[in-house]
DNA sequence: TGCTTTTGTCAAAGCGCTTTGGAACGGCGT
DNA sequence: ACGCCGTTCCAAAGCGCTTTGACAAAAGCA
């Protein structure tokens, strides 16, 4: 069943049917209804290839999937992709994926761009001075990045959350509660978001004349096991930290296991604030001690990025080039005043 | 630059140029050379959409990417995808990916099929009685599965490795070395390959009148941390197992850490055989005690699957419908005779 | 030499859609 | 009655490629 057959069936011209389908104003509402009805009955679906040829739009956005262990072992990426996918399906867009050796991300991105299969590109997992950025800019194809890249000219379209602000605020809260000995469970060190969170934390600390020694930071892939291991190390320190910042609720899950196994009480002996990406299977309010968090939905970011990308392709715009989402600081029970015994002991 | 312009430039007809490009025989070799040369100089690339429209082929294969934590936290999938991608790039094919809620895999697969964006479908991570299979069969679109599905009618095209055989052989080797107390570090219980490996192991054991109690099996996502945890549990048993089978070298990595930390010697106190997917960053011969393995390259499987899928689409066939790859049993130093002290103690 | 094959090339007809430039029609004012 | 406008629809021209059917030119055969 194609447009021609459908239009013959309806006794209309192809033009009219096409316009009815694509929401053009110059077609009678009654006619449009009739067309829509016929589409339902016949199960007509426009041929994608023909649409692509006629419009010059592929209806797809490209992304290269790095096959490095770092990226894969990451439920966060899955959650984000789900958001992207949700919105894409809604507009009948799809993703073209190119698996690539992590050493050849730039090349893979270029190949994807010139393949003619995509209208726009998307990248994530930004690093400092990210080499993909100059490449994308030279490409004359719309693109959007999730996150930012420290050290790069900030003249590219992005969506990011205010990582510095989030961890700055979280640190301030803990400082106000009297804590002076801090530690950080962070994501992989080379990733932009991890750097920014660290910076935000350090900024707040230095306002009080405190610093954060290297051995009080852990940079790992964000799994619960690694969170536990790192936390165990912190807890074995002679002057163990009482205030922990944590880049993910997944890391926090492990960290809290370590706290419990050490016979300590979360929110009393140890205060912890985690960043909450709103993962559906891991709700901070359901932890045995509900978690104080900085919150920003990863899935919502995916939805928004898909929206902007698709909007740009369809030229629905204009969209803001750069969006920086504030996070919410939600106080629950995992934070409390510094324990009496640890007061006035001075910072690390 | 399009075909028309290119042909005018060359003083040839579009037909001839098109034929020269697509390897048809009825064009003079000298002419073909000339065309190819011009393509290089002008950087001409055929318009994908037009090709799709003219040929009816999309030049792409679809896969739904489950966003469940299980699948993501899996370097194995990345390695496999790399193989697929390698071969796809070679033929200028691409993947269309649809991220999907794990509860809606079947629906996502159907949407992908009717979207008109793909010529063929690919699925992996098969489970028993997999509900995707009947759906795919009803679809009149070529598909290929990696793995098999216990409990399903075996009338679908697949590529799988002989998981039963691999673990049967591995178990026999350990039995011949005198071991009687076994344990298994396996992948997620509901996945077909894990079931088959367990079955192969149990088959070999029962030939000697041995069995494998539930607490001597661990079913987890295949990360090194979880391998370590599970192994620690095995080693704390009053009659600790001396022979370990392991579904991945990644699990083995953690397991061996546990062995070392318990002050035991691999290949002497404990023998271990792991399945080796030939992950580039984890070579069994580079372990401090080189690992005895059952080997089958996951990347090679990816390449082969892409070949078959692309071949089917291009009707290059015929390909065998079902392929079952034998694994190699490669003996290195992580296996040795049962320790003297543990001899004749009887199986679990 | 005249005849049939083979070889190398071409013009033109799609593939199924979007979109441009008009045309038919009714309602309005004069 | 006429001309003019806005609305609603249509015919036809692409989009860039593949492929069919035909045709010259070259080659093989008698």
TrEMBL record, chains A, B:
GO molecular-function term, one example from the UniProt record: transcription cis-regulatory region binding
Classification via InterPro entries: HTH_LacI, Lambda_DNA-bd_dom_sf, Peripla_BP/Lac1_sug-bd_dom, Peripla_BP_I
Keyword Transmembrane helix belongs to the record: no
SUPFAM superfamilies (UniProt xref): lambda repressor-like DNA-binding domains, Periplasmic binding protein-like I
Keyword check for Transcription regulation: yes
Record key words, sorted: DNA-binding, Transcription, Transcription regulation
Pfam families: LacI, Peripla_BP_1
Domain HTH lacI-type: 1-55
PANTHER family per UniProt: HTH-TYPE TRANSCRIPTIONAL REGULATOR GALS (PTHR30146:SF109), LACI-RELATED TRANSCRIPTIONAL REPRESSOR (PTHR30146)
The protein's name: LacI family transcriptional regulator
Phylogenetic lineage: Bacteria, Pseudomonadati, Pseudomonadota, Alphaproteobacteria, Hyphomicrobiales
């Amino acid at each position: 069943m194609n447009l021609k057959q459908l239009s013959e069936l309806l006794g209309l011209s192809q033009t009219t049917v096409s316009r009815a389908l694509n929401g053009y104003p110059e077609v009678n509402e009654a006619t449009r209804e009739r067309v829509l009805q016929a589409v339902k009955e016949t199960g007509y679906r426009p041929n994608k290839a023909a649409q692509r040829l006629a419009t010059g739009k592929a209806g797809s956005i490209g992304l290269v999937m790095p096959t490095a262990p770092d990226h894969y072992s990451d439920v966060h990426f899955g959650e984000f992709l789900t958001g992207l996918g949700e919105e894409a399906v809604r507009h009948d867009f799809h993703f073209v994926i190119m698996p690539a050796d992590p050493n050849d991300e730039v090349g893979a991105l270029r190949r994807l761009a010139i393949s003619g299969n995509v209208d726009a590109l998307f990248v994530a997992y930004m690093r400092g001075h990210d080499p993909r950025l100059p490449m994308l800019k030279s490409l004359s194809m719309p693109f959007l990045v999730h996150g930012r890249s420290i050290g790069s000219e900030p003249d590219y379209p992005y969506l990011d959350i205010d990582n510095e602000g989030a961890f700055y605020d979280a640190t301030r809260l803990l400082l106000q509660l009297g804590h002076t000995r801090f530690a950080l469970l962070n994501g992989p060190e080379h990733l932009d978001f991890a750097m920014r969170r660290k910076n935000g934390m350090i900024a707040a600390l230095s306002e009080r004349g405190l610093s954060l020694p290297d051995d009080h930071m852990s940079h790992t892939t964000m799994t619960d096991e690694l969170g536990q291991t790192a936390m165990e190390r912190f807890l074995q320190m002679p002057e163990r930290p009482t205030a922990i910042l944590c880049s993910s609720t997944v890391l926090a899950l492990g960290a809290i296991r370590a706290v419990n196994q050490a016979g300590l009480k979360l929110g009393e002996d140890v205060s912890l604030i985690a960043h909450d990406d709103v993962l559906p299977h891991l709700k901070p309010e359901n932890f045995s001690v509900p978690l104080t968090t900085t919150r920003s939905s990863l899935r919502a970011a995916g939805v928004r990025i898909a929206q902007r990308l698709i909007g740009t392709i369809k030229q629905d715009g204009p969209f803001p080039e750069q969006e920086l989402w504030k996070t919410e600081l939600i106080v629950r029970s995992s934070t409390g005043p510094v324990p009496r015994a640890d007061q006035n002991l001075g910072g690390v």
